[in-house]
Write a structure and sequence with these properties.
This protein is mainly β and 135 residues long. It has one domain. The protein contains one helix and ten strands; from the N terminus they run E-E-E-E-E-E-E-H-E-E-E. The strands form two sheets. It has a six-stranded mixed β-barrel with strand order 2-5-4-3-7-6.
Length: 135
């Protein structure tokens, strides 16, 4: 199991060798009020991996020292779930290269049960980037 997610790491999705993603950071939900916006910078919109039609604003603290070591971003919400924000490094029929996604850290680091009964890691860290040709 993946224990710590770091920005700039590249992961391969279980669906194929070419399905590569770069982690942008870890995000936590918090209710973002109008008064909070003076300390936050909107950096991107991320698609929910479970519902790609739904997008979330991803913010970064302007004052970096406020962040804990592993939390880089904030997403407006109250569910207290930690998410991985990651960038698609390939083009597909449905989504262009560089599409930004978000997925709960539990789901990102977890396993997928396939129909034939096999259990696989959803994402694998690519340790040797020299072997990757499409990034």
């Amino acid at each position: 199991m993946i224990t710590k997610i770091r920005s700039e790491e590249v992961y391969r999705h279980f669906k194929g060798e070419e399905k590569l993603y770069k982690v942008l950071g870890v995000a936590r939900c918090k209710i973002i009020r109008q008064s909070d916006l003076k300390n936050l910078e909107l950096i991107c919109h991320a698609k929910d991996c479970e519902n790609p039609d739904e997008e979330f604003d991803v913010f970064r603290e302007i004052l970096e020292e406020i962040n804990s070591a592993n939390v880089k971003f904030w997403i407006n919400g109250k569910d207290k779930i930690t998410y991985v924000v990651y960038q698609q490094l390939y083009s597909s029929e449905d989504f262009p290269k560089n599409t930004i996604w978000m997925r709960s850290i539990r789901d990102f680091t977890g396993y997928k049960n396939l129909e034939e009964g096999r259990r696989v890691k959803r994402f694998e860290l690519v340790k040797d980037l020299s072997l990757v040709t499409n990034i």
